[in-house]
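Sharing a chain and its predicted structure for anyone who wants a worked example. Both blocks are below, sequence first, tokens second.
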Amino acid sequence: MERSYRPLIRESLFRRRLRIVGSYLFYPFLWMTFIPLYRLRVSGQGRLKASGATVSIMNHCIYFEWFFVWHAAWPRLVRFTAEEANILRPDAGWFNWIMGVMGIPEDHPMAIAATVRRCLNNGELVHFFPEGVLKPRNQRPEGFMIGAAWFACLHDVPLIPLTEILLKRQIHRFLPWWPPGIKLVVGEPMHPRNFHNSGERLRHRAARMTEQAEKIIRDTIIREGNGYGLKEE
């Protein structure tokens, strides 16, 4: 049975404390499970760990990649966004609720606008998956939605592109279904002021910023992939 849900507009002191306690309880277990399994390597972690309001985006191709972002930013907490269905799920929905994940309603995605504003005003790191849906083991990211860049431009905060690169491992010669290695590259922050054109609508500015972030992610996969990655055309 699905639980009722509405976007988190205000966060009580209890919810803030619950999120912090949950983070410290769950993080060690998740670290022991996913870091060795995927042999995660992270480049540029300091850019995520830096304080201050920030929006980040990443390509979406592994079910547990949200933890890779969490790990890269640790001990800084990440405010994730996800499809509303992930908050309503009877199995993992409780975990997303504890961790303060923002569910995006399919019929009214801008319902999270007030929550995003509050989080950024509080200096939080807000993460989006701009492809919207998971594309398992896909290393050809495309079709990024402009929502993350739109919020970055609206609130004048940096946008950080994260690239998730899937790597072949020796074990794939015998067990091709085995989880790939993961390299997470944290890119240079992109500042909205660098995409400003006088008289241009914010939507167009956000679209150009999104296109640039998508290009950075695709180029990084080409440069650092080892078989799962894109090939030069």
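Comments welcome. The chain is about 40% helix and 15% strand.
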